[in-house]
Amino acid sequence: MAKIVIPQKKTATLELNLNGEDLHIPFPVDSMAGYRQATEVVKAYRDIAKKSEIIKGEVTEDQSVEILDQSVALMESFRGAVRVAIRDEQYDKHLKSVEDDVPFTAWLQILSEIIKAYGAYFQSVTSTEGEL
């Protein structure tokens, strides 16, 4: 029987300046849960963008409320995706106490940096030069 060696998780570091304090938060770049959550956020954004594009001209009150509700849910999902990506321990240590004070645009920036790290790692392991 072949011996399978499972390597240690690969990590990247999220660098934030929060209220004047520099934070360095390690997070796994090979986390399936992180990739899935990031993908769900991107899909939700795409769905809202499609609805907005389809609805040209006048919007009914129901359509307007539905798009607004989905938009708010999308904004909330940024924070949730960051939490999944950096894991509960790091989230609770660095961001839990200030999460309501961080604007949703900052959550989007943080998530964007995480997705860039995911992309760089994924590219490195799937390219012809990378090792699986």
Strand order of the largest sheet: 1-2
SSE succession: EEHHH
Mean pLDDT score, rounded?
89
Give the biggest beta sheet. 2 strands, antiparallel
First-last Cα distance: 20 Å
Q: Number of helical segments?
A: 3
Measured by DSSP, the beta-strand proportion falls in 5-15%
Work out the number of β strands: 2
Rg estimate, integer Å: 18 Å
Model regions low in confidence, pLDDT < 50 over at least 5 residues: none
Structural category? alpha+beta
- Shape estimate: globular
Percent of residues in helices comes to 55-70%
State the domain count.
1
Oligomer: single chain
List the helices and strands and how they pair.
Elements: E1 11-18, E2 21-28, H1 32-54, H2 61-94, H3 104-126
Antiparallel strand pairs: 1-2
Structure, briefly:
The chain is α+β, with helices and mostly antiparallel strands. It contains three helices and two strands.
Can you describe what's shown?
The chain is α+β, with helices and mostly antiparallel strands and 132 residues long. It has one domain. Helix content is 61%, strand content 12%. It contains three helices and two strands; from the N terminus they run ββααα. The protein has helices spanning 32-54, 61-94, 104-126; strands spanning 11-18, 21-28. It has a two-stranded antiparallel ribbon. Helix 1 runs antiparallel to helix 2 and helix 2 crosses helix 3. The radius of gyration is 18 Å and the shape is globular. It starts with 10 loop residues before the first strand and ends in a 6-residue tail after the last helix. The model has no long low-confidence stretch (mean pLDDT 89).
